[in-house]
Design a protein that fits this description.
Helix content is about 35%, strand content about 0%. With about 130 residues, the protein is mostly helical.
Length: about 130
């Protein structure tokens, strides 16, 4: 079944079927636009790569997320970027009067148990732990 001519790939067959019915001037225009788009993307990629390397050589800090090819919209905010607040404490520092009160420790510290939270529902009559038996 060899005809002596190389067989066209699937991509080229699809390309021919899409553009084959169009006039020649439209086919040439479409091909030229595709080639131009590929060349433009290469140029932008090379331009970004050169700018990234210049930044590294000049010793300027490069944002970790803005490494080559990973820029984000926040990198371009400039003076409109939110200001970083100085390191502050946790949210509990802002509770004020609602913060839990520290109990004065007159007895040795003990681990709280579930019975401490039962209130009036706690079993009555037991004063000792599991070691005391009636």
């Amino acid at each position: 079944m060899t005809t002596g001519m190389p067989q066209a790939s699937v991509k080229s067959q699809i390309f021919e079927s899409l553009l084959g019915f169009l006039p020649d001037w439209v086919q040439i225009t479409v091909i030229a636009l595709i080639v131009l788009a590929v060349l433009a993307s290469w140029a932008v990629k090379i331009k970004r790569k050169i700018a990234y390397r210049r930044t590294l050589r000049s010793g300027q800090p490069v944002h970790a997320a803005a490494q080559y090819g990973q820029g984000s919209g926040a990198d371009y905010l400039g003076e409109y970027a939110p200001q970083r607040a100085p390191q502050q404490g946790s949210g509990a520092d802002h509770l004020g009067a609602y913060a839990p009160q520290q109990a004065q420790q007159t007895q040795p510290a003990r681990q709280p148990s579930g019975a401490d939270f039962l209130g009036s529902y706690a079993p009555q009559g037991r004063t000792g732990g599991p070691a005391s038996s009636a």
